[in-house]
Specification:
With 275 residues, the protein is mainly β. The chain is built from 3 helices and 24 strands. It has a 6-stranded antiparallel beta sheet with strand order 1-2-9-4-7-10. The structure holds manganese (II) ion.
């Protein structure tokens, strides 16, 4: 559990083969698989905590999350929406179920990624990008095969609305039965996919079921996803940041000195105040 609200499975760096460097620039992948939440008057979530040196990307498939931070910013991430938070030089925030959703209960499913930043951008002021449904770029596949939602990067000429500090392609492929879709990324990029709903085949042979993560080797550039059923697939591909990674709890820097500095800043209240 992350706090009392998020039942997270940690794929990265939790799975032994998946280190932060192996999947860099994606340094954490936490997944709350589809769960049914009972109605609750107590709003569940995770209390005030800091982040520094990277970005958090929260993708909500079912349910609603709210968040508040030390700059006074408050917002809600609705179903089908994405919040791209650049923590960079540091922020203090809390994340919890949106009050109305908490009271009514219902389906909940989300992903939180941590995306690393090159050292020169770890000093930037914190900021947000809210990719609400109306801002989500979409590529329509031919013959009603489905849509590719482009969160960042580009797919067949359609650009995602999130801006990134290093090249990152992030899509939600929402596929109909019988769909086939092709993807192409540079071989050196670290690429992976997570099946959110349904069952798929990659290159016609490798089956990947709901809640399974597939990591590509850094060989070749193209792959095809096909499916016989309605499926949703999160697809990630990013250029590795060729820098050392020093991670400690909510801080991801380049070396131990910078981690100690981040701990000091936090203890001195430099990330602001949040009840
Ligand atoms: Mn957080």
């Amino acid at each position: 559990m992350v706090g009392d609200g998020f039942k997270m499975h940690n794929f990265i760096p939790g799975v032994p083969q998946l280190s932060m460097q192996r999947t860099n620039p994606f340094i954490v992948l936490d997944y709350n698989s589809l769960t049914e939440l009972a109605p609750s008057d107590h709003v569940r979530g995770v209390g005030a905590h800091p982040h520094k040196g990277f970005e958090t990307v929260s993708i909500v498939y079912h349910g609603k999350i709210a968040h508040t931070d030390s700059t006074g910013f408050h917002g809600v991430i609705g179903e089908g929406e994405v919040q791209w938070m650049t923590a960079a030089s540091g922020i203090l925030h809390k994340e919890y179920h949106e009050e109305g959703f908490s009271k009514s209960g219902g389906k909940f499913q989300m992903v939180q990624l941590w995306v690393n930043l090159p050292s020169e951008f770890k000093k930037e002021p914190a900021k947000y990008q809210s990719i609400t449904r109306d801002k989500m770029s979409k590529y329509l596949l031919d013959d009603n095969q489905g849509i590719i939602e482009v969160i960042s990067g580009e797919y067949n000429g359609i650009k995602g609305s999130a801006s990134t500090y290093t090249p990152i392609h992030m899509y939600n492929a929402k596929l109909n039965p019988g769909a086939k879709a092709n993807f192409n990324f540079p071989a050196e990029y670290n690429s992976m996919l997570l099946v959110i709903e349904g069952n798929i085949r990659v290159n016609g042979e490798q089956k990947v079921a709901t809640d399974q993560l597939l990591i590509f080797e850094n060989e070749g550039e193209g792959f095809e996803i096909s499916t016989d059923e309605k499926s949703v697939v999160l697809i990630l591909s990013g250029e590795p940041i060729k820098e050392p990674i020093a991670a400690h709890g909510p801080f991801v820097m380049n070396n131990r000195e910078e981690i100690l500095e981040a701990c000091n800043e936090f203890n001195l209240g430099k990330f602001g105040y949040l009840e």
